[in-house]
Amino acid sequence: MSCDSDLQVIDTEEELATMIQEALDEAGTTLAELREQARRGRFDSEDLRLTWFAVAPWIR
Amino acid sequence: MSDENQLGRLARSFADDISNLLNGTVTDGIRMSAKVARLPDLDERFAISYGKKLKSDLIPVTFNKRRPVVFLYLQYSCVFDKERKHLAVEKATMSIYSSSTRSDESLVVGSDFARHPEAEKGYPAAHLHVAGERTDIGDIYLGEDENERKSRKLRDLHFPVGGKRFRPTLEDLIEFMVTERMATPKRGWEDVVAAHRERWIEIQTMTVVRDNPDAAARQLKEMGWDITPPAS
After folding, report:
1. Domain-located, residue A7
2. Chain A residues inside the 8 Å CB shell of B91
3. Splitting chain B (232 residues) into consecutive groups of 10 residues, what average pLDDT does each group show?
4. How large is the ipTM?
5. Which site from A49, B65, B152, B173 is most exposed, i.e. has the minimal number of CB atoms within 10 Å?
6. A3 inside domain
7. A interface mutation test: which of B55, B150, B157 has the most A CBs within 10 A?
8. What is the total count of domains within chain A?
């Protein structure tokens, strides 16, 4: 059994910034707030914990 | 083949591997998505999730062809190691929820990994979050922050599991859902889990040997192997 998975290529800074902002908006938070919660290792909600896992790899 | 293409190929292969493991055991028709950035200031990396957005959608887990009772959240990010020879998982979460809302109350278990835990208050690199009601969590908090004492919940604790090398895998989580009767597995699911697990163990063994060559050589000598160390 095999499966051809999707490959999405992010080509521009704007595209990446939009995707990050979309994740933050959906979670109702800001990057600064999310960073702070990650630094203390404790998130105010599950949704914020998952949002951190989604955006952290793409933040410089 | 350019490095850029190589990264895309590796990302797709990683995503295929997860999709095939899931669809061979506890899901139907799931296609994981690999995301690669071609940006000069960003290290070579990719992320694996489910859906088009950065944040993964929940994956319904099969249950007797009826409505699912649990949902999986999977999110991985990978980078090349410093020698640029091997891929390394930088950050990952594999979480199980009892509803499609990803709410605090519906978390069954979350298995998290961070290659650099020092950036997150030094909690264990591999840890579990478990949700539930406990009234004494505040009593066992010895920190100074009064707000944290009052608001800390069971799910905030980071239960250490296995460290960087021996952390829980998706195969373990699938086995957990099946044996705890949260998922109805497909016929032959054990073989699929076993095959994927064998590959994981092989990769981890090679990494452990790379990190601990003297111990590996000693053990192999004990087993009768003839080991010659490298010249330098």
Report:
1. no
2. 53, 56-57
3. 67 94 95 89 85 94 86 93 78 94 90 84 89 89 87 91 92 97 95 97 92 96 95 81
4. 0.89
5. B65
6. no
7. B55
8. 1
pLDDT over 70 percentage in chain A: 93
Residue B208 maps to a domain:
no
Q: Which domain holds residue A27?
A: 13-58
Residue B214 domain-assigned?
Answer: no
**Angle ∠(A9,A11,A13) on CA atoms, nearest 5:** 130
Question: Is B107 in contact with A3 (Cβ distance < 8 A)?
Answer: no
- CA-nearest of B71, B103, B84 to B44 is B84
The count of CB pairs under 8 A between chains A and B is: 131
Q: Which residues of A touch B123 (CB under 8 A)?
A: 41
The answer to whether the Cβ–Cβ distance between A58 and B31 falls below 8 Å is no
Residue B180 region by backbone torsions, left for phi larger than 0, else alpha for psi between -120 and 50, else beta: alpha
A17 in any annotated domain? yes
What pLDDT, on the 0 to 100 scale, is given for residue A4? 67
| Amino acid A3: pLDDT | 58
Mean pLDDT of A14-21: 94
Question: Residue A40: what are its φ and ψ, rounded to 5°?
Answer: -85, -5
Q: Is residue B98 part of a domain?
A: yes
Q: Which of A1, A4, A5, A43 should we substitute to test contact with B (largest number of B Cβ atoms within 10 Å)?
A: A5
What pLDDT does residue B171 have? 98
